[in-house]
Amino acid sequence: MTKKNKKQAVKELREWLVKWTGGCNVQNGFPCGTCACHLLGELMNEESKEYKEHNKPVDRINEVWRAILQIKKAR
Predict the structure, then answer these.
(1) Most distant CA atoms of the chain, gap in Å
(2) Do 4 and 30 sit in the same domain of this protein?
(3) Which domain holds residue 60?
(4) Do 1 and 32 belong to one domain?
(5) Which end of the chain is less crowded, N or C, counting CB atoms within 10 A of the terminal residue's CB?
(6) b/e map of 27-64 (b: 16 or more CB within 10 Å)?
């Protein structure tokens, strides 16, 4: 990923998060952790087997990826 593409991707992610967290942008234009986590939680199915899976120790990047996979499956 080029530096320019990375900058654009971060911008678009920030805008998407702000939009879907109801406009929360209290952390330098990004939503707070509470709003971002709430958004991801709203998009996931807590009853699915995938929701209960995780690595030990917990890998934060992998956890975000698992959340994305669950959100895609829930569509």
Answers:
(1) 39
(2) yes
(3) 45-75
(4) yes
(5) C
(6) eeebbeeebbeebbeeebeeeeeeeeeeeeeeeeeeee
Model pTM? 0.73
The answer on 55 and 36 residing in a single domain is no
Which residue is associated with the tokens 């707070």?
32
Residues ≥6 apart with Cβ < 8 Å to 43: 67, 70, 71, 74
- How many domains, the chain? 2
Q: Per-residue pLDDT tens for 24-49? A: 999 889 999 899 989 988 888 888 88
74: tokens are: 């829930």
φ, ψ at 23 (rounded to 5°)? 95, 10
